[in-house]
Specification:
heterodimer, A: 285 residues, mainly alpha, ABC transporter involved in vitamin B12 uptake, BtuC, B: alpha/beta, Rossmann fold, 6-stranded mixed β-sheet
């Protein structure tokens, strides 16, 4: 039992961590948390199933198209729900605009795709084993994203520009960085990461429209606990969340597991509003 | 679904708007008449829809105070509806204990709703907006899951029958009148709050939190009160909802409903009561004309929400706010009337001295203030000057409690002022203004000034809810004082105008008027002359001298050296957080280091 708790816990935790990274990448570029983070994960799963199972594309092509779909939704989020409300950030209208967009996509998926969970294809044609691909795929995806982001941020010019925008976007604009272009690129990148999370976790979560709100919530927990914008914190917190949730699932059953996760989340957050790894920000008067 | 505000409660307001109370109340009266006579001209089907609108409004009325007034985005508030619906139904059906009378069940649901309103709302006091939004969303999900899983009580997925209220409210129209009555009461109560110091304080928390704190508004206490009220009415709405549905299952309470409530408030407009009433009616009726699209309803609601947020954030309330479309007189002059000050503030007051002793505060490695001593005496204008970054505003923020100094203390009349409890400064009669004016743009100038007198009200939230005599006395007193304060700064002709339509210089005087509402022992001004014309600066100077004459100690942070030297009794010059020089204007003007470092040779 311990083995299955650990493997499913780590796998689910990796998916949450990836959604957390999705939140972070969007946040770094715009100072905005978007409710579409979980929707991106859901879309990755649905598009994967749509392209590979329903239309019968080769797996590699379906994979690339699913990620492209995520990137597109990321860019649409930026254009439709984020950019128009950026100038009045203090009114927090982005909470409502991104929620609206997330619901639009989610409802459209429910109506046009299915209101029931649909099967997701097995990616590698190998025999189902104890430590199956449905567990190690999310872990692989998570590791790839973390390494990839580190390389991007540390060793490429675009990555440095991303960091500059995240640090101080006024100063970055004053330096002549194309702030808007970089923001759109960030949202596209976030879309790819979110869709990858949904695709890699497709065999665990299936292609189901209602995954969107669940991923939006559970994917935010690592962000809140790991400290916003902190990807390593998100991975650690995501893994803890996944393991905690799966243990509670096995030990006390589904509903109490949800209540336990929620209660723990609230309590930890109230005790550490800036996250377990974050530092408080001085308020300006 | 409404009632008119009693004319006695707002006599002066009617006079301000010049059109009488009727102009403000007629839409509500019209709705009241339509609502009462509905059975005469509408069929039974419309009765159900009207009942649903009333049920929704009971919840939206409370949520409106949270969202529209206080700006707390509790997007999962549907959780309280669920809780109320199940509590009422389960208690009335007798699933767990002997069946209770439906009214008693509804009342208990209201009480439980109030408690859970606080539980759901409490994170708002500590968390950022998005964090709070997502915790309420999580709460909504959890409540539905519990309803699904706790089969012995809630019936699980099968559900539970809703309560049936006894005669005369058991018939369709009878139940309609029951809901209509409750909706009307909720409208009346929230209108009372909106027009009270609590309503203004909520908008101040939403749009100008630091100014709210400086005016003595304790955000936690006020928000908890609102959570109690909103939670109670939401749960009662849930009980009515269960009765209207006659049978409830967990899937009746989706996030779609929350979205619906939010659209109703936003489409109506923030800080309005009439707007959200109309929004609720509109959203309940609209689907009846779009029956073929029923599968798409959530989709369409979401589109509507997006469109409203992006295209008309002001909502219906702004569309129908005709009096704020009239152009204002251009080339207005601000002519303060110092002669009114003694009436507003009294004379010869002596509150003791305000002192800073060896205050030091650094941010990271930067010493913002480094061992500063400062004494501000009543009846004097004390100037604080220095180059940018020399610690002037930081000094002000230490006095008003925004920063805790790492060493040293601020004392008033020998008593230490505790750091970081900002809202207590108002009780010590320490008022302040801000470098960028912090006002509620959507509220009238008069309302903004009245915010400054919040702590002088005596009535409780409950008294304001029911418009009891103490509430009315408070409002009359605040109104009168605020009009006097506005006349004193020379802006009484703009009392009814939305604050965001004023010029920058006028906003500075509105802030001063708000500060004067406290009858301040000490008035701290952060660059009040910035952005003023030369003529206005002269008037401001004379006005500040007159304020000091009544016994108020004025601390003036300024860059205009002329103003400082003209009006100050005492000047302190800061450089890099340290005192460079202190003395009379004449001494400072000839101080060699000051001339070198700051004034220029």
């Amino acid at each position: 039992m311990l083995e299955s708790i650990v493997s499913s816990g780590v796998a689910i935790g990796c998916i949450y961590a990836l959604i957390g990274v999705t939140y972070n990448v969007m946040f770094s570029a715009s100072r905005v948390f978007s409710f579409t983070a979980g929707t991106l994960g859901m879309i990755g799963g649905v598009l994967g199933s749509l392209f590979i199972l329903r239309t019968g594309m080769p797996i590699a092509l379906g994979f690339v198209l699913a990620l492209a779909g995520g990137a597109l939704l990321g860019v649409v989020t930026e254009i439709v729900a984020v950019r128009p409300v950026l100038k009045s950030l203090d009114q927090h209208l982005y909470v409502l605009s991104t929620l609206a967009l997330a619901l639009i996509v989610q409802q459209y998926t429910a109506i046009e795709w299915s209101t029931e969970p649909q099967p997701f294809p097995r990616i590698f044609d190998i025999v189902r084993g104890g430590f199956d691909q449905q567990y190690w795929l999310p872990m692989l995806a998570c590791a790839a994203v973390i390494v990839g982001l580190e390389l991007l941020y540390r060793h490429t010019l675009v990555g440095h520009a991303f960091l500059a925008i995240a640090e101080d976007n006024y100063a970055a604009r004053a330096l002549g960085l194309p702030e808007r272009g970089l923001r759109m690129a960030s949202f596209a990148l976030a879309g790819v990461i979110g869709a990858l999370a949904g695709f890699a976790g497709g065999q665990l979560l299936l292609a189901f429209f209602a995954n969107a709100p669940l991923l939006t919530f559970y994917g935010f927990v690592p962000v809140a606990l790991g400290g916003m914008g902190n990807n390593r914190g998100a991975v650690v917190a995501g893994l803890i969340l996944g393991l905690f949730q799966q243990s509670a699932n096995f030990l006390v059953g589904g509903i109490f597991a949800s209540v336990a996760v929620f209660a723990a989340f609230i309590v930890v957050l109230l005790a550490f509003p800036e996250g377990l790894a974050g530092a408080p920000v001085q308020r300006r008067v | 679904m409404t009632q008119t505000p009693t004319v006695q409660s707002r006599p002066a307001r009617a006079a301000v708007f010049g059109a009488g109370a009727f102009a403000h109340a007629w839409p509500f009266l019209a709705l009241l008449v339509i609502g009462l006579t509905l059975p005469l001209f509408a069929g039974g089907y419309w009765g159900v829809i009207a009942t649903r609108a009333c049920v929704y409004w009971v919840l939206v009325a409370g949520l409106n105070l949270m969202v529209g007034f206080a700006g707390q985005l509790a997007i999962g508030w549907v959780a309280l509806l669920t809780l109320g619906a199940y509590t009422t139904s389960v208690l009335a059906a007798g699933n767990v204990m002997p069946a209770l009378h439906p009214y008693l069940a509804l009342a208990i649901a209201g009480a439980i709703g109030a408690v859970f309103g606080v539980i759901v709302g409490l994170p708002a006091l500590r968390l950022r907006t998005f964090y709070f939004a997502i915790t309420t969303l999580g709460f909504a999900t959890i409540v539905t899951q519990i309803a699904l899983a706790w089969q012995s009580v809630t019936g699980g997925g099968v559900g539970v029958p809703g309560p049936i209220f006894p005669a005369p409210f058991d018939s369709q129209w009878g139940f309609y009148y029951f809901c209509f009555g409750l909706a009307a009461i909720c409208t009346w109560m929230t209108m009372n709050i909106a027009a009270s110091r609590f309503g203004r304080a909520l908008t101040a928390i939403r749009d100008a939190e630091v100014a709210a704190e400086a005016s003595g508004i304790a955000k936690p206490a006020l928000l908890v009160t609102v959570f109690l009220f909103s939670g109670a009415v939401a749960a009662i709405s849930g009980g009515l909802f269960a009765s209207l549905q006659s049978y409830i299952t967990p899937d009746a309470f989706t996030i779609d409903l929350s979205v619906l409530f939010f659209i109703a408030i936003l489409i109506g407009g923030r800080g309005s009561i009439l707007g959200p009433v109309l929004g609720t009616i509109l959203l309940t009726v609209l689907p009846e004309f779009a029956a073929p699209l029923v599968a798409w309803s959530t989709f369409l609601y979401a589109v509507l929400l997006l469109v409203i947020v992006l295209a008309m954030p002001g909502g219906i309330a702004e569309l129908i706010d005709f009096k704020n479309r009239r152009p204002l007189q251009s080339n207005r002059a601000i002519v303060p009337r110092p002669d009114l000050l003694p009436r507003l503030l009294g004379t010869n007051r002596d509150p003791g001295t305000l002192t800073l002793e060896q205050v030091a505060l650094s941010f990271g490695g930067v010493h913002a203030v480094d061992g500063l001593d400062l004494t501000i005496r009543p009846g004097e204008v004390h100037g604080l000057i220095g180059p940018n970054g020399s610690g002037k505003t930081t000094t002000l923020n230490v006095i008003s409690g925004y920063y805790a100094p790492q060493s040293g203390t601020a004392k008033l009349d020998g008593v230490v002022l505790p750091a970081l409890v900002r809202h207590t400064r108002a009780r010590h009669r320490i008022a302040r203004t801000f470098q960028t004016p912090r006002l509620v743009g959507e509220a009238s100038v008069l309302d903004n000034v009245m915010i400054g007198g919040t702590i002088d009200g005596r009535g409780t939230f409950a008294e304001s809810l029911l418009s009891l005599p103490r509430h009315r006395r408070d409002e009359a007193m605040l109104h009168e004082t605020a009009m006097l304060a506005l006349a004193t700064v020379g802006l009484e002709s703009l009392a009814a105008v939305r604050a965001d339509r004023l010029q920058h210089s006028e906003l500075r005087f509105v802030e001063i008027a708000r500060g004067l509402m406290l009858r301040p022992a000490f008035l701290l001004l952060d660059e009040p002359a910035a952005g003023l014309s030369a003529e206005e600066i002269t008037r401001l100077g004379a006005f500040l001298v007159a304020i000091a004459k009544t016994g108020t100690g004025v601390l003036l942070v300024e860059h205009h050296a002329d103003l400082i030297f003209d009006i100050c009794h005492h000047v302190t010059v800061l450089n890099l957080g340290k005192m460079l020089a202190a003395g009379t204007p004449a001494e400072i003007r000839s101080h060699p280091e000051v001339v070198n470092a700051y004034l220029g040779g």
